[in-house]
User: Fold this.
Amino acid sequence: MKIAIADDLETDRNVIKDMVLDFFGRLQIKADITMYESAEALLHDFKPHSFDLILLDIYMGTLNGIDAARVIYKEDKDCRIIFITTANCFAAESYEVKAAYYMIKPITREKLNEVLSIYLKEKIDAEKKLPVISNRASVNVSYSNILYVDVIKRNVKIHLAERLVDADRGFYNVVNPLLDDRRFIECYKGVVVNMEHIRNQIDDD
Assistant:
């Protein structure tokens, strides 16, 4: 796990580092942590996929954490950001960069553990793959990329955001693993949808 901590206060950086190392250490997950005293220093080192997670203060020097997060999100949408700061003034802006959480200092070990647990669960969900046989070839489809799965005249189709995958197996052989995941529901017979991609719901009276 590659993690960055950016905070202009050395004491806060060290406290956060100790809490993060303790959390991942208890789970026997190796955490490789790099610390920065400014947003500028973080961006100087930043490259796409260089970090899995960034714990980021907002009020730092010339460039604030929100503006740095916008740059990071533009270049790497897989990198998650947890803001740790002194005020909630930028809470609304944090949604622009799909922040994993927005924490107000002083933080407690219990609260940070809770937030990191949520992040880790989301990361595991994002990495789950569905093994599928399509046109006699093996394909691994990311759960998070699936919009919905349906069946028409025994033809099972997995609808992704960017393409369509025809599955060679029966409908429930394909969707049963999905239905064990909290994101998927069978809204009616022969259609399973990923609730994370639902933008609107219309009542059908």
Notes: The radius of gyration is 20 Å.
